[in-house]
Amino acid sequence: MSIDNNFLQEKIIKNNLSNNEISNNVINERNKEISKITNELNELSDIQDIILKMTLEQEEQLDNIDNNLEITNNNLNNGINLLEEASKYKNTVTSTICGSAIGCVLGGPLGLIVGANPAILSVSTLFLGGIIGYGYNKI
Question: Which residue of 93, 109, 117, 118 is 20 to 30 Å from 78, comparing CA positions?
Fold first, then answer.
């Protein structure tokens, strides 16, 4: 029985060594998998950081576009107001010049007919025509 007992103890020891090797192999494989998962999570974190950075940059660009659109809208409104004002001045100047020209053209010959100095009458009717033209535009 002692031989069987020794044989049995050797088998148990071999079996324990084999189990320890298996356990060590399983632990090593598990550590490799954990290391692989850790690396993949780090890569995923890096990708997430890059996406966040890109999102923030794009948000800044969108804010710049929004500000530019607002500035452009204000500039367009100011331009429209200036064009409307210029149109009023154009009409005023056009009426004043036309009135002055008509006054000058009519005043010179009228001065000859009446016998007055044509230059003085021409200048006087020029101003009078300008005033009438300006007043006509205001009506």
Answer: 93
